[in-house]
Design brief:
Number of strands: 17
Oligomer: single chain
Strand order of the largest sheet: 13-14-6-5-12-15
Radius of gyration: 24 Å
Order of helices and strands: HEEEEEEEEEEEEEEEEEH
Number of helices: 2
Shape: elongated
Strand content: 25-35%
C-alpha cells in the first residue's frame, strides 16, 4: 500500500473511534453524573527508509469534559450533588475511584453505597456510616453529615492533582494518579447532577464525523481503482 493509503487508513481508524465515543456519549445522555468524552487527534511522523517521512493522524487519547451539568431536585436524604470542581471517592475491588454520580443509599452493613454497591468514602478514606435511629440527617455544603444536630461523618470531596491524569474506567467512575481535597466544591443535599452531554451537539458532531469517514472511504476506493488500473496497464 502506498503512502496515501496508509495516511487515509489511520484517519479512518481515528474517525471510527471518535464515532464510538460519540455514540457512547449519546447513550449516556440520561445517566446521572456522566461526563462527556472527546477524542484527541495527534500527529505521528515516521521515517520510511530513504523515502520522505510519513505523517499520519492518530486518535490515541480521550478528553474528559468536566463542565458542570444541571442539578435536579429529588428531596432524597442521601442524594448529593457537587457544584464546582470535585468528585466523590468510592471504594471498589480494583481500588479507589472518583465519581460524580451522587445517588447513595444505606447498605445492610450500615454504610452509604452507590447503585453498584460500592461504599462512599469519607475524608479519611473510610466508608461513610449511616446514622442509626436518627430522626433527621443533614449534610452541609462542605460534606459534614449530622444526625439530629450532631456531626457523625465528613464526606470526602476530591479532585485530581493533575487534571490530565484523570482516566475513565467504567460507567461514571474515574481514576487519577494523585488526589487533593476539592476545597471549593459545594455539596447540595436532595439533588443529583445530570449528565453534561448535549444531545443536539453530539448528533451534529456524529453527522460531521460520518461525512468525513465517507469522504475518506471514497478516496480509498478511488486509490484502489487507480492501483488496479496501473497493474492492468503494466500487465499487458
Amino acid at each position: 500500500m502506498e503512502t496515501p493509503g496508509y495516511t487515509t487508513l489511520t484517519r479512518q481508524s481515528g474517525l471510527m473511534r471518535e464515532m464510538q465515543v460519540i455514540a457512547h456519549n449519546i447513550a449516556n445522555t440520561s445517566t446521572a453524573g456522566f461526563r462527556r468524552e472527546g477524542v484527541v487527534f495527534s500527529e505521528y511522523v515516521r521515517r520510511m527508509g530513504e523515502e520522505p517521512s510519513l505523517s499520519m493522524g492518530y486518535a490515541n487519547a480521550r478528553h474528559v469534559d468536566l463542565r458542570q451539568a444541571g442539578l435536579s431536585q429529588t428531596g432524597g436524604t442521601y442524594d448529593l450533588a457537587i457544584q464546582g470542581e470535585g468528585f466523590f471517592l468510592i471504594g471498589t475491588p480494583e481500588g479507589e475511584r472518583l465519581t460524580r454520580s451522587s445517588s447513595f443509599s444505606p447498605s445492610a452493613e450500615g454504610v452509604l453505597v452507590t447503585n453498584d454497591g460500592y461504599p462512599l468514602l469519607d475524608a479519611g478514606g473510610a466508608p461513610v456510616p449511616v446514622p442509626v435511629g436518627a430522626r433527621t440527617v443533614a449534610i452541609a455544603s462542605d460534606g459534614t453529615m449530622s444526625a439530629d444536630g450532631a456531626p457523625v461523618a465528613q464526606i470526602g470531596l476530591w479532585q485530581p492533582a493533575d487534571p490530565l491524569s484523570l482516566r475513565h474506567q467504567a460507567g461514571t467512575m474515574f481514576s487519577a494518579d494523585a488526589l487533593e481535597p476539592a476545597a471549593a466544591a459545594v455539596l447540595h443535599q436532595g439533588f443529583i447532577e445530570e449528565s453534561n452531554v448535549e444531545p443536539v451537539s453530539e448528533i451534529a458532531r456524529m453527522i460531521t464525523v460520518q461525512r468525513a469517514y465517507e469522504l475518506g472511504q471514497k478516496f480509498l476506493d478511488a486509490e484502489d481503482a487507480r492501483l488496479r488500473g496501473v497493474v492492468q496497464t503494466l500487465g499487458r
